[in-house]
Amino acid sequence: MKISYEVVHLKAKHVFKIAREELEGDQFDNVIVRLEHDGLTGWGEAAPFVIYGENHRTVLAALETLKPVIEKWDDPWKAEKMMAELDGVLELNFAAKAAVDAALYDIQGKIAGVPVYSLLGLDPEDAPLSTFTIGIDEPKVVRQRVREVLDCPLLKIKVGGPQDIEALRVVREEAPEARIRVDANCGWEPHEALAMIEELADYGVEFVEQPLRAASVEGMCWLHERSPLPLMADESCERLEHVPACAGQFDAINIKLAKCGGIRHALKMIGCARAHNLKVMLGCMLESSVLITAAAHISPLVDYADLDGHVLIANDPFVGMRFESGRMVMPDGPGLGVQQR
Length: 341
Ligand code: MG
Description:
alpha/beta, 2 domains, eight-stranded parallel beta sheet, 12 helices, 36% helix, globular, binds magnesium ion
């Protein structure tokens, strides 16, 4: 197998603000991975996230380290063994490994002549609707953003800013029928979170993602006992080993391929979450259609989806899953089904 990779500069359509100021921006450097085997090309993407200690430079360094190991394998059907060997050579670096994982599934699907969802025995008709995400902003900007997506029945509103309730009021005014979920991205302290969640419940919010910092375990247990709304872990649940501890603190987890190391790890997390009676959402970073589509292939297994990263960027270099008013329309074609524009 041959591997090559290059950085892509993805530009967000709007400056994207969340409760963590260090993450504000409109430019995201991801890395597109290309595996070649027997005349077939498998695509993958690394979407590194600074809070997990990764950026495009760490991804390139990881792929450089893993390249000789990957290139000595020539059987894409032994993917589990190959990925385990990569873990043995280099720990962490989950965004880079998720890219290789996606490319392997793409090649397997292309050899078999079926989409990845079929390879996994899944029916895309079972996929949930996806939310469309609106970042923290002045209420008048939030109003404009909501007006742009009135066809989306599911909205995810980023909170943890100074005008959260006003923003929610504006969203409700503009989209009275929309189902709303909110994401605080670690932005609150426990008592503040409880007061906010009680107000959010009045606006018909369905659940709240990551109200407190990931390290705030006691705070989360306290909040979970009192919260009138279900709570979902994101920053608190990066990988498989974090899932069991989420029971008791949260009602659901948000799985992202870039956090957990790819499809094969996401499948294990889904199983573990079910065993702990946790609901599951598939989420994303700012990503091109490559990694978004990879996640969409396993979305028939989950309760909720937040797979809009490719819709939020202005220069997606690929086409794949089409986002039609929150409905995820899978591409035709084997493997991931993604194609370069
Ligand atoms: Mg989140």
